[in-house]
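Archive maintenance. Older records in this collection stored only the sequence; we are now back-filling the structure field for every entry so that each record is complete. The fields below show one back-filled record exactly as it appears after the update. Entries are processed alphabetically, and HAD family hydrolase is next in the queue.

ARCHIVE ENTRY
Title: HAD family hydrolase
Organism field: Rhizobium rhizogenes
Length field: 281
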Amino acid sequence: MEKAQSAMKTGVFKNRNGTRISSGNKIKCRNLPQEDEAAERRPTLPKKLSDFKYMSFDVVGTLIDFEGGLKSTLTQIGAENGVEVDGEKALGLYRAARYSDATDLFPDDLVRVYLIIAPQLGLPAERALGERLRDAAKNWKGFEDSRTAMAQLAKTHRLIAMTNAQRWAFEHFSKELGNPFYAAFTADDTGTEKPDPAFFEKVFAFVESEGASKDDILHVAQSQYHDIGISRKLGMTNCWIERRHDQKGYGGTIEPENFTEPDYHFTSMAGLAEAARQAGG
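Back-filled structure field:
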């Protein structure tokens, strides 16, 4: 397996109409495939982990602890203003504001989000503080097991980043993770966000250009809404990293209408990496 960081390929910095993406573009998703109850059930015989050539990854929430990053900055702002911020309440408010109709590209959208949620948290609704929340994304940390697990998996698989974040933020996330990716697709590159099937189609086209297919990809993610459900509908094999297994609710991630039973299920990236090692891949 060639070194991931030296071989990393990127997506095209244009949307589906050929227009270059800027931070001012709004994200609009296609309609998802029709609900199919059978498609949400776990297949009886998933492929072995060693059978996959690629592993594609959601980044924010799966590898990067964005909830911890958001809560940390909001707590700091609160302390400076004599306000105690409830972290879980903040995540709930963030989720509602983030997934409204007026969203922008992420994490630039955090400026708008902050101005909405600040009054509800008792914080000053100042644009400079919203920009501080946005810029803090540059310093968000990976989960404790992310960097080591990705380094191990990169020895045997081609790792593809599939993130709803903008390219500028992804570059910081990738560095935090040790630059493990063979290829990367961001919201800037695809012109859309997961769970839009068009995002996944960009990745399918990429692996097909290398003589492979979506059957050669294991899609790994923590979000049922953005990744696990749609990957099942598109016929991919998936792996759910249940980061909030010891916490209630969905935190900062939108709750899915229907739960999708994954092909593989771990509560950490370390669990996936160890299973892949034992499988010989």
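Update note: Residues 1-7, 10-42 have pLDDT under 50 and may be disordered. The two ends are 12 Å apart (CA to CA).
Entry marked complete.
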